[in-house]
Amino acid sequence: MDINALFTDEGLRAFTATVRDQHVRDAQQYGQIADIVRRRLEQTPIEGDRWMSKKLRAWKVSRQLKAMQKASGEAASKAEALYATYKNEVLELPQRRAAAEARKLERKQGRQATLGAAVAKSLDKTVTSLNAPAGQVPGAVPQARPAEFVTPDNPWNQWPMAAGGERPTSTINDYFAKGQGQ
What's the CA gap between 110 and 119, in Å, rounded? Predict the structure, then answer.
């Protein structure tokens, strides 16, 4: 047998099919022989036998042949398992790895797209809510406001309140009185 042929799909398939068929035939023969031996020993008395001696002796001998039958059946299944394992672990491995890599890349791109959309939505929401005037619903179109002037004669209203004030400051010009100075 060419050992290099075992490392191809057709070569290993042929080898395992041959081995499997041989073990299946052996298992059938062992089973038939076990039945023949058991029946013959049950009918053959030996001097000094008691009531169940023939059947017990027949069972003990045929049990060994049944064990051989079982072992051959398991060897036939192991031959099939050998081919299936080789095909799964060696022949199909590159395709499975390529498919897994493609799924991994797809999931990564999906996560990046989702993350990008979430960041954009969060930034849009933040900008919208920070630029919205007091009393206006965030996300709504701002309405034109009348011009506001800070009167220099009332020092308490000269500067807007910082945290918790009546209205948030929207520009740096709100901190300085308009119309004074330069």
Answer: 14
